[in-house]
Amino acid sequence: MENIRLDITKTLSFLGENVISTYLPEAMSALKAVEDGSRPGNDFLGWVHLPSTISSELINDIKATAEVLRQNCEVIVVAGIGGSYLGSRAVIEALGNGFQWLINDDKNPTILFAGNNIGEDYLAELSDYLKNKTFGIINISKSGTTTETALAFRLLRRQCEEQRGKEMARKVIVAITDAQKGAARKCADQEGYKSFVIPNNVGGRFSVLTPVGLLPIACAGYDIEQLLAGAATMEEATGSNVPADENISLQYAIVRNALHQELGKKIEILANFQPKLHFIAEWWKQLYGESEGKDLKGIFPASVDFTTDLHSMGQWIQDGERSIFETVISVEKSKYKVLFPNDEENLDGLNFLAGKRVDEVNKMAELGTQLAHVDGGVPNIRLIVPEINEFYLGQLIYFFEKACGISGYILGVNPFNQPGVEAYKKNMFALLNKPGYEAESAEIQKRLSASK
Ligand code: PA5
Which atom of ligand 1 is the closest one to the Cα of 290? Predict the structure, then answer.
């Protein structure tokens, strides 16, 4: 199998041909720090060698657990938020039929996601949908205390026990959490649920290749060994022993930082031309947003689905403030072949496309967009993926993770913490009078009445 590839030529006209060599010493030092743990965040580098070191015992345990859920559930609800659900959702949606949720095949359970919002209607409608279904739950939370997830899990668990009985519920509820601490661990141990551990040294947004991502993906019927194999090839291809002109994570990290530092580009837009990749972009936004947006620094990660969004955001990208650059995930080969038919009357005037594949039209839209955006002053990075399958998605995930670590260090932040996420939680708990937040509660009430 070949590897995914990176084309940075459409950034060099903006940055100059020497950009890679100029940034190389700094980038190599950042890459070495990701590998040897010599910079802040070094207690969260467990993801770096995960693909090549994951044990066959763990893989088999995940596969066996997935089989129990597949055998006993029409629907599996994955409860988790942020890094505890985005990776699995991204892979499942990329690999699945775009209309999967409307297809009731007996072969695969429907995978649904909850615990990633506090929408009352969302939970009510989910509960209603689950009423006559045999369903199971994968409860994922590293801290084991995240409100959104815990809230959904309490509701889902009760419904599961009521519908399926305590004994069956015990069989179809699985926890993925810390080895010792947190409410999710306590509940799993007390109830005797099957559980998996999220390694201490792997942060949420880097955890898709642990049971966090692997179990839901296996439940959906996909090949987690191929996913890991792809990631392992990227682990090798992005090591510090690989020449810079072959190391695509290093190059991506350099180019995005150079665009930011040299040209003041503030926003990176991740674009795809395959609607299946929508959640890959959601996962990527979390990865880069939480890793780099801190200490008043960071490139803002945005995303678009093309050609859909060419009819909404296209205008802004073409003619708006020149503070953006674009990274396009370009898929070489579609899974299916759809030929555009000839029409004798040609009322729509589209006979010039007769006999062409729909994908050929899509490819020309992609090329036309690239030319237009580059002409309009938007540097373009192209990430070429031969086709959407488990292997290449594994490569894509690891490529972005490695580049994110390097990039964050070049930017001068600790890419592996997320202190800013706590601010809203503190206010929410204070407003809800959570025990232990009495002082914050009083303070926030004072602020609110002063602003009335
Ligand atoms: O990357 C991160 O650490 C976060 O996005 C977490 O994944 C997210 O906040 C969920 O946390 P937890 O798994 O503890 O429920």
Answer: 1
Q: Where are the alpha helices (DSSP H) in 205-338?
A: 211-219, 224-237, 248-263, 278-292, 314-319
Say how far apart CA 141 and CA 80 lie, in whole Å. 6
183 Cα–ligand 1 center, Å: 15
Q: Which residues contact 196 (CB under 8 A, 6 or more apart)?
A: 61, 62, 65, 174, 175, 176, 210, 211, 215
Residue 118 to residue 152: CA distance in whole angstroms: 8
Task: Give the span between the Cα atoms of 96 and 74, in whole angstroms.
Answer: 16
Cα–Cα dist 112/77, whole Å: 5
Q: Which positions ≥6 away from 224 have C-beta within 8 Å?
A: 59, 62, 63, 214, 217, 218, 390
- 141 CA distance to ligand 1 centroid (A)? 7
pLDDT tens digits along 332-364: 999 999 999 999 999 999 999 999 999 999 999
**Residues taking part in catalysis:** 290, 311, 425
Whole-number Å distance between alpha carbons of 311 and 342: 26
328 strand-pairing partners: 271, 382
Pocket test for ligand 1, best of 47, 140, 142, 185 (most atoms within 8 A of CB): 142
Question: Angle CA(434)–CA(80)–CA(302) in degrees, nearest 5?
Answer: 105
Q: What is the distance between the alpha carbons of residues 329 and 6, in angstroms, rounded to a whole number?
A: 10
Residue 286 CA, ligand 1 centroid: distance in Å: 10
Query: Shortest CA distance to 151 belongs to which of 434, 384, 444, 436?
Result: 434
The length of the chain, given as a count of residues:
452
| Span 273-289, pLDDT tens digits | 999 999 999 999 999 99
